[in-house]
Structure formats: C-alpha cells, structure tokens
Design goal:
With about 525 residues, this protein is an alpha+beta fold. The protein folds into 3 domains: about 220 residues, Alpha-Beta Complex (Spore Coat Polysaccharide Biosynthesis Protein SpsA, Chain A), CATH 3.90.550; about 130 residues, no CATH class; about 130 residues, Immunoglobulin-like. Helix content is about 30%, strand content about 30%. The chain has 14 helices and 21 strands. Strands 1, 2, 3, 4, 5, 6, 7, 8 and 9 form a 9-stranded mixed sheet that branches. A 7-stranded mixed barrel has the order 12-13-16-15-14-17-18. A two-stranded antiparallel sheet has the order 10-11. Strand 14 and strand 15 form a beta hairpin. Helix 1 runs parallel beside helix 2 and helix 9 packs across helix 11. The longest helix has 19 residues. The radius of gyration is 28 Å and the shape is globular. It starts with 9 loop residues before the first strand and ends with a helix.
C-alpha cells in the first residue's frame, strides 16, 4: 500500500463479496472524493468467486492510501470482513461502505468536517436509496437537506435507533475500540451489534443534513435485504442479535432502555410474525428465547410500535407464553369489522391494551394478468389489507369492481407464495365479456363485512399491459391511468379489410388523380 499524503483524515472499509456488477461504481465514488488523497481505503475481499477481487485489485494497485486484504469467505454476512478491515485502520474516523453502494463526491469531507467541528463520536448523514427512492422512519431528521449539522445524543434523535445500517455513519475509531464494538460474524444483521450500542451509549451524535450515501436495494434476489424474510436462518440470526442487545439494559438509563426496547420490538416484528411457518419444535424454541428478551417490555410500547395486528398479536403470544397463539396469531379472529366509517379492524376478542392493536391499514391490490379466456374476461393478481393476516385466512369476501362498466364480480382467493403468504393472497375474478359495455373501466378491489364495504385501489403490475380479442371481435386492452391505477378498455371490433372490388375501386381513383 502507498501511504496517503500526511496522516489520513478518515478510513473507509469496504467488505467485498459477490458485487462484481456494482463494485466498480462503488470504488470510483471513493476515488473521486474531494479529500481522496487524505483517505485510507481498506478493501477486504471475503473469498469472492465472481471477479470482484480482480476489480478491487485494479483499484488498489498503486493508489495512495488504498490496500486490498484477501481472506477465505467468513460469511454469511460481511461482519468478519468489516472487522478485518477495522484492524488495519490508522485514521481517527472510519466509515463502512458496502461494495454495491456509492458515496457522494463530498461525503467524506462533509462527514469529517462535522465530526471535527462538533466533537461527535458518531456522525449520521442522509442517504438516498438507489435505483428507486424511498423514505424511512428517520427521514424527517434530515429535512431540509441544507447541509446544516445538528448535535445532541440519541434522546434528541430517537428515531435514529431504528437505523442500524452503517453506510451513512462516520464513527470515531477510539469509540469502537474503547467499547469493544465489533460486527457479528457468520450471521446476517450483524451491523446492528455496532451501530445500536454506539448510538445508545454515552455518545455525542451529529446529524448532517446532507446526502452522503447512495444505498442500493438491488431487488434481484442477490442481496441480504432481497431475501430478508425468505431465508429462515435470518430469523435465528436476528434473534441472536436481539438477545445480545438485550444485555445492554442494565448499562443504560431508563430513557435509553425504552429506546432499546423500541428497536428490539420494531426490528424483530417481521420475523416473529412468520413463526407460523416454523415446525412446532422450532416455534417452541423461538417462543422460549423470545420470551426471555421481551418479557420485560411494556405491552403498550409493543402496541404503539408494531404495524397492525399481524405483528402485534405474535408479541401478545410471546408475553403470554402461548405457543398456539404464536403459530396462529389470527386463529381467534372471526373476520373484519367495517362498521365504523373511517376504520377497519380485525374482529377478535383481546384484552387491553391489545384491543388498540386491531386497526388495519389500506386495502390494496395489484393486477398481474388481464386475459380473455373463452367468453370471459379474467382478472388475476394479489390483494392485501395492511396489518391483517391474508384475507383468505379470515374468510373475508373479496370482489373486483369494474367502475365505469357497472359490474362487480366475486373473486376466488388462494394463498400467495413464499414470505408474502402471511399478509397477501391471490385473487381470480371472471366476468362475461358480453356483459361489459364499450368504454374504459377502472379496476377496484372490494372487501365486505355483512352490509359494510371497503374498496381499494388496484395497480397494474409491470408488463401486464395486454391486448386481446374477444369472441365477438371486440378488442380488450389492459393498461394504467396517469396515476398507475389499473383499467380495462373494451373497444369495438376493427373494420374488416377491404374486399377485392373495393381495392380495385380505390386503385382506379388513385390512378385518375395522378392523371
């Protein structure tokens, strides 16, 4: 490694495994930092087999301050690679950047300036998700994006506790060493074991209202987050994480214990809600271990922080040591309550405060197939009611409304595949083409509870636009309006092609005009 000019201002550690398609963009963003000549960059190849190591070597070779460390794969997860890189850091500050993310050109300069000006132990900057933007629970802390720096501790920025990813955070290296903070090795979700204790401890924090990181959500099934709930081992990995974090309670003052509990509840709710998919013996093990973590958590806090009954009721089962309730948290539900004009609730008998956890969110559907099958128009897709178990489990009647065509037809429900089966089901609805008038009809999904109804927007899945011809010759088109809502258009049959005599007559007219 060639040394950077002078002492490095900060270090960037990049764990590398299976990111050959994005690594060049990541490392280019580091090389183009405004303080690039003052950075130490430690690349750690974690036994890559896809060419990532060669890309890393091409960047590290001869570049001042850059080094490449190679090790056998120590996954799953990048924790061991991050810890190995931290061993080589000589700078006073460090940022951990994944090999598929990018840093904005002035990110490191702004982060280091904020740290040195405020004396912060941790500086947290804003991030943008790529390629599709999104907002998070903590986004409001960085608004407006005007480059200002706020200082305080975690009680001043409580929503930061729910943001354990390290890629937009600059850590004082001395803090990590003094508190013995290291990433978990051989598990996913290992970054939490560094970031959450660093945020919750007696640390001075700075919030930089400037975008530093481009956080990549690949969405192609190749990253940890793409398979967050599909991989059963992730449940046990995250259980290890919350078990270790729970040991912090005796070291924290009460207001920070409450923040720790808030993180423990929100971060594990998605895994606990999927306990229904575990075998009985595994579910019992999960119940026993989870109860040890959550027995002291206030149920009111659980109700306030979980995303509806499908996530709150499993915690109720854990606190009650109820294995049957954990494996089937909606088993006692008798359907939906739509009696209140502006509310949808799960119909189930529970004691306070759990009765506050029964409110549900929006009803939404996506049409992924609009086809002509014989004399019928067939609509297929997925439907979910936010916070509720899958509607087919509740026996809730669902219909599809063709608004503008004056037709509402019942839908047949079936389980969705994979991790989506918890809250999502598939639907199929058929309507005779002969009953549909010419024109365009917007598609809506409708759920019914006796005499009460709720309807929801239906989107059109990408690639679901179709054109088909019905048995009567009319043209059926599926598409979306300007806001992405699904719609179906019925058009009259196209005019028949002209016959031979008509073609000869048109040709004669054309020749006479030319003459």
């Amino acid at each position: 490694m060639t040394e950077p000019a002078g002492e490095p201002l900060a270090a960037v550690v990049v764990p590398i495994y299976g990111v050959v398609d994005h690594l060049g963009e990541c490392l280019t963003s580091l090389a183009r930092q405004t303080v690039a000549e003052r950075l130490q960059v430690v690349l750690v190849d974690d036994g890559s087999v896809d060419g990532s190591a060669q890309v890393a070597a091409s960047f590290a070779d001869g570049r001042p301050g850059w080094s490449l460390v190679r090790q056998p794969n120590a996954g799953p997860g990048p924790g061991a690679a991050r810890n190995r890189g931290l061993r080589d850091v000589r700078a006073p500050y460090v940022l951990f950047c994944d090999g598929d993310d990018v840093l904005e050109p002035g990110a490191m300069e702004a982060l280091v300036a904020a740290a040195t000006r405020t004396g912060a132990d941790v500086v947290v900057a804003a991030a943008r998700q790529i390629p599709r933007p999104r907002t998070w629970r903590w986004t409001h802390l960085f608004e407006p994006l005007d480059g200002t720096v706020l200082t305080g501790d975690i009680t001043d920025f409580p929503d930061l506790v729910h943001h354990p990813a390290p890629g937009d955070k600059l850590f004082r290296v001395q803090l990590l060493h003094e508190r013995g903070l290291r990433f978990g090795e051989g598990i996913h979700h290992q970054d939490t074991l560094v970031t959450v204790p660093a945020l919750l401890g007696p640390s001075r924090l700075a919030v930089l209202r400037e975008v530093a990181q481009g956080y990549r959500r690949r969405g192609d099934g190749t990253s940890i987050m793409d398979n967050h709930f599909l991989r059963e081992q992730n449940t046990w990995d995250h259980l290890q994480v919350v078990e270790r974090l729970a040991t912090l309670r005796p070291t924290l003052p009460p207001e920070r214990v409450a923040l720790l509990d808030a993180f423990l509840v929100r971060s594990f709710q998605g895994f606990l809600a999927r306990a229904w998919a575990l075998p009985a013996e595994a579910a019992q093990q999960l119940l026993t271990r989870a109860r040890a973590v959550y027995a002291s958590v206030d149920p009111e806090l659980v109700v306030d922080l979980t995303d509806g009954p499908v996530h709150a009721l499993p915690y109720r089962a854990v606190l009650a040591d109820d294995l049957a309730g954990l494996r089937d948290p909606a088993g006692s539900a008798t359907g939906l309550d739509l009696s209140e004009p502006d509310a949808v609730r799960l119909r189930v008998q529970v004691d306070p405060p759990w009765d506050r956890a029964l409110s549900l969110g929006r009803l939404r559907a996506t049409a992924d197939a609009v086809v002509v099958d014989g004399a019928d128009l067939v609509l297929r897709g997925t439907v979910r009611l936010a916070g509720a178990p899958a509607l087919h489990l509740l026996g809730a009647p669902v219909s599809v409304r063709l608004r503008g065509a004056g037709r509402t037809v019942p839908a047949v429900l079936s389980p969705a595949a994979g991790a989506e089966a918890l809250q999502t089901c598939r639907f199929e609805a058929r309507v005779p083409l002969a009953e549909l008038p010419l024109g365009t009809a917007a598609l809506r999904v409708v759920v019914t509870d006796g005499e009460h109804q709720r309807s929801g927007r239906m989107a059109l899945a990408e690639g679901a636009e179709r054109r088909a011809t019905g048995p009567d010759g009319r043209v059926v088109r599926s598409g979306a309006d300007a806001e992405g809502a699904a719609q179906v258009s019925i058009e009259p049959p196209p005019p028949p092609p002209p016959g031979r005599s008509a073609r000869l007559r048109d040709l004669g007219r054309s020749l006479r005009r030319r003459a």
